[in-house]
Amino acid sequence: MRLIITLFTAFTFISAQAGKAYTVIANPGEKAAHCIRINWHSDIDEKKMYCYYTECNDTDWINTKKVRPKQKLCTAYDSMYSKTSTGENIYENARFMRNTVEIKKLTPNTKYMYRIGDKPEEGEIRYFKTAPEKCTWTAAIISDFHAYTPLPKRVKSAMSMLSQLETQNKSDFDMILHVGDIIAWGGSYSFWKDLYEEPFFKKYMWAGLNGNHDNMDRTNKKNSNNFFRYANNNPQNGYNGEKGVCYHFTYGDALFIMLNNESMRSDEGLAKAQKWVKEVINKQKDTKFIIVMEHYQWFFGTDGKTSQYDRWKDIFDECSVDLAIAANNHIYARTNALYKGEETDGSRGTVYLQMPSSDNERGQELKDWTHNKDIIKYRWSEGAKTVGAMLMKASDNELLLTLYDRNGNAIDSVIVKAKQR
Ligand SMILES: [Fe+2]
Questions:
Q1: What kind of architecture, by CATH, is found in domain 133-417?
Q2: Ligand 1 centre distance from Cα of residue 120 (Å)
Q3: Ligand 1 center to residue 170 CA distance, Å?
Q4: N or C: which end of the chain has fewer CB within 10 A?
Q5: Where are the alpha helices (DSSP H) in 109-217?
Q6: Per-residue pLDDT at 120
Q7: Where in the chain is the domain with CATH 2.60.40.380?
Q8: Pick the CATH number of 9-128 from 2.60.40.380, 3.40.640.10, 2.60.40.1470, 3.30.70.3270
Q9: Where in the chain is the domain with CATH 3.60.21.10?
Q10: From ligand 1's centre to the CA of 353, what distance in Å?
Q11: Which pLDDT score, from 0 to 100, does residue 14 have?
């Protein structure tokens, strides 16, 4: 009897809380200058909800437009073994409606505000900015902060790092990119919901990808790319089984291709992803910058040993990929432009870089640099308590990427030159 009572009390209702819309995020449309995609969740009986939006300079919401979402019952996170913020073991009861809207025909390079509710004056005001069609833009890049509600300092460290990047940028960014592992256990719904309440999720459009932690549940037995998929509303232009997880979008003069490592563990899975990457690049020849992002590291930052670099370098050479961004290793590592395994003057080849962690907890120490000393230009880690992130500034001729530490020290930078295709 006591066991039954314990199990009952441990079964916590996550979704039935105040606030009609939760886990709200703005993601890019395929053409991010004109299109944005918003995801939010609501209680099952909350049928009448809309997204209201207007340009930020329409301060009285005179020209507000209203969009009805597509609604679908989501049970992907239901009954997952998890933890509360106080460390109690629970099975999360997370059944809710997933709401998605795709807003098209937006004005490029424009800041918008939006609200979610059944009336235009209801709901918290959130923001996104559309991409410029050409010219300059700035993105923050952050990774591996493993949001975990029993240890809120992880998210706090990452969000402070984003504040530091705003300070260094001397103004807002145009968007935030993440390279995965933003959640400790993607199957724990309360972790996503809690994270998305952070002001940076209300202020910016986020474009991210699925890391191994976002893909796993606490038991590591019910892993799924649905956890990442249903906490976002990404473009539906990925390949079979990866729609809404793998995707591509154009932002200014750049084409971004976002990959999912969890579906590329086998040779067959890798071949499928590489076929898709080639097709996407071949269709879009007019972009100045081709940027491919995946979670797993190009090199093991500890000693420089080759990791995913070997699996991708020939494709990147063939497709003229300019910049390859990864993470996972929790150690920053960066090359200059490489072509056929050798450094170039930057007029051809791919710059490989991998992000450090940003949670002040799960970093790792550098060891003796014994491998790839000819191609890796820089490594950086603060050990277990690492916090770092990057600013990427795009101009007509180049991308300038700078790594900062939590104190605003510029640690390393690299230029990716624009190519004529
Ligand atoms: Fe990680």
A1: 4-Layer Sandwich (3.60)
A2: 39
A3: 29
A4: N
A5: 153-169, 189-195, 199-203
A6: 87
A7: 9-128
A8: 2.60.40.380
A9: 133-417
A10: 15
A11: 43
pLDDT digits (tens, 9 = 90+) for 173-212: 999 999 999 999 999 999 999 999 999 999 999 999 999 9
Side-chain-facing half-sphere of 227: CA atoms under 13 Å = 32
- The pLDDT value recorded for residue 16 is 39
Residue type, 401: L
Distance 363 CA to ligand 1 centre (A): 9
E strands, 1-95, are 11-13, 22-28, 36-42, 50-55, 65-67, 70-74, 80-83, 89-93
CA of 296 to the centre of ligand 1 (A): 9
Distance from the alpha carbon of residue 211 to the mean position of ligand 1, in angstroms = 7
Give the distance (Å) from ligand 1 centre to CA of residue 94: 25
pTM above 0.85, yes or no: yes
Helices 267-283 & 309-319 angle (0-180, nearest 10): 20
Tokens 């550098």 locate to 366
